[in-house]
Design a protein that fits this description.
The N and C termini lie far apart (about 55 Å). Helix 1 packs across helix 6, helix 9 runs parallel beside helix 10 and helix 12 crosses helix 13. The strands form 2 sheets. The chain has a 9-stranded mixed sheet with strand order 1-2-6-5-4-3-7-8-9, sandwiched between helices. It has a 3-stranded antiparallel sheet with strand order 10-12-11. Helix content is about 45%, strand content about 10%. It has 3 domains: about 80 residues, 5' to 3' exonuclease, C-terminal subdomain (DNA polymerase, domain 1, Orthogonal Bundle), CATH 1.10.150; about 190 residues, 3-Layer(aba) Sandwich (Rossmann fold); about 55 residues, Arc Repressor Mutant, subunit A (Orthogonal Bundle), CATH 1.10.10. Helix 13 links the parallel strand 7 and strand 8. It is of the alpha/beta class.
Amino acid sequence: MGEERAYWLAWSQVSGVGPVLLRRLQQHFGSLSQAWKASPARLREIEGIGFHTLEKLVQQRSRLHPEQLLIKHQQENSHFWTPADADYPRLLLETPSPPPILYYRGEVEPQENLGQKPLVGIVGTRQPSEYGIRWTRRISTALAKNGFTVVSGMAEGIDTESHIATIKAGGRTIAVLGTGVDVIYPPKNRDLYQQILTAGLVISEYPAKTPPDRTHFPRRNRIIAGLSRAILVMEAPLKSGALITATYANDFGRDIYALPGRLDDQPSQGCLKLLNQGASLIVREIDELLTMLGAVPQLDVVEGSSASEQLSLPILSSEMQRVIDAIASETLPFDFIVQQTGMAAGLVSSALLQLELMGLVSQLPGMRYQKS
């Protein structure tokens, strides 16, 4: 196992050989040590290794000595896992592109790595609204008090709020960085970084002293998704990196939840897109969300309130307010709602869809609607 560890490291230093190709090499040869010793002709059999890649691979391989490389690397990076290590996170290992090297700092919890303790990812915009901040804090607190580990990226905004709330609630949190584990980014999170080291882990696929790079952060999102059983997207505009995390989560077979927002709120457009694509709604009762995530509901999970406290509704647009005001306690047909509001049918249909996504209205057979 120690020998194989050295070869995971050595292969990771070969340019043009990424996580997916490494997985193919391991599966084809049975081990990366055997792949290292394979002839160029046998390496050429692997999908993804063309002539030019093979030429560079053979040249670089001849200059590397795995055992020596491991000794030197351990001097500069004292804590890291490879897929050959028993402590490598199991859920992440099951994904198509697990990092060949996963560096970490902090307090390791074996149950997390073995998949015996549930991890939930919370992601979102760097510029959240008060609504997004409020519910990120409440949901993070509830997860922490119900035994979940919260995973996020230590970025500004939603990520930072989820880490802080989890720590305040006495829970564990994991920050996945796009830098080396010894590089604090953004710098303003220096105090948070130190708190995470005592209340969880900081992990990265990048070695020590790696500075921030814009290409690193989208890639690290696959690690957040791979570690987590479910991803909660709290607020996200259409170009948010949180949607990249959700895409990875979907590819990995993880559950995706999104916080509903107003139809005309820019920070909520990504969440609305996810809901339209089949993501689950973050429901108005926290204990119901916990049940869906696999927890045993407990009372008093949110400071000063019970677990069944209902979600405070965002301010509705004028169109949505007119529609919901028109719907009485009994079931109403679509045409009657149009007549009552005096609005165009298209506007009514759009407002009803949004209200339904927010859990405020339910559609029944025959294009009939009622308040939820």
